[in-house]
Specification:
Length: 274
């Protein structure tokens, strides 16, 4: 693992030109258009990066982007990897390890999610306040590498209260309504049954998806500050769901999600929209 991280980060480091890129972005289903908000200096297909998996899901472009958002340097993944694609948890979370090796301190993660909270509507944006890990495998299982993080990482504040508060302020400035809630992560790729939706609600979930939890666990293991945003692309009251509808709902919510993330990044650096 350490050797693979070193090889990948050594390949990508020259693209940073020695400049700090403290914010990393993982752009999920329906939010790939955030690419247009990034002034890209370098775009590298995952297939060209040593030891990187390749995204196989429709709507995930599979590109590593080095650039700027409103003058602030960022590294972004346009498309992620999922456990249901057949990758190991170590492969799913490998890019987060590489981001940390390149100096990323803050991870901003977005996803599409099914709304379990009955108050949620399709198209809502939900700031993730906590998660429930329902995956059958854990990304930290196995021998711990002390160079990467502690054996038993603390997860009481997996999603930064500071960034949650800043996002709330950003939403008010931009007049973007925001939900807050708990994200439950399941393996997939099948969508949840009505009984599973009810179960997730009973155990405390507000939204459910097939990503994010492994990446955040690894980011926290590495000492990174995390912020998560879910686009509610379908609700538990919907009779049926398919991937095309999820993508379309994500596309419609995209302008608000992008505006919020841009404002959040500005706020991190003491700049806000007046």
């Amino acid at each position: 693992m350490l050797d693979k991280i070193a090889r990948s980060s050594a390949f990508l480091a020259p693209l940073l030109a020695g400049e700090e890129h403290a914010v990393g972005l993982i752009l999920g289903t329906g939010l790939g258009g955030a690419r247009d908000a990034i002034n890209a200096r370098h775009v590298v297909p995952y297939a060209g990066i040593p030891h990187f998996p390749v995204s196989t899901v429709q709507g995930h472009a599979g590109q590593w982007i080095v650039g700027e958002i409103d003058g602030r340097r960022v590294i972004a993944m346009q498309g992620r990897f999922h456990f249901y694609e057949g990758y190991s948890m170590q492969e799913v979370t490998f890019p987060v390890r590489v981001m940390r090796a390149l100096g990323v301190k803050t991870l901003v993660v977005s996803n599409a999610a099914g709304g379990v909270n009955p108050d949620f509507q399709t198209g809502d944006l939900m700031v993730i306040t906590d998660h429930i890990n329902l995956f059958p495998e854990h990304p930290l299982r196995g021998k711990n590498e002390d160079a990467l993080g502690p054996r038993f990482p603390e997860m009481a504040e997996a999603y930064s209260p500071r960034l949650i508060a800043l996002a709330g302020e950003a939403g008010r400035r931009l007049d973007i309504p925001l939900r807050r809630g708990v994200y439950a992560g399941l393996q997939g790729p099948s969508f949840e049954t009505p009984a599973e939706y009810r179960w997730i609600r009973v155990i405390g979930g507000d939204a459910v998806g097939m990503s994010t939890v492994p990446e955040v666990i690894v980011a926290r293991h590495a000492g990174m500050e995390c912020f998560g945003l879910s686009v509610i692309t379908n609700s538990a009251s919907s009779a049926k769901t398919n991937h095309e509808e999820v993508q379309e709902a994500g596309r419609l919510a995209q302008p608000r999600a992008i505006a919020l993330v841009r404002e959040l990044i500005r706020t991190m650096y003491g700049q806000t929209t007046k």
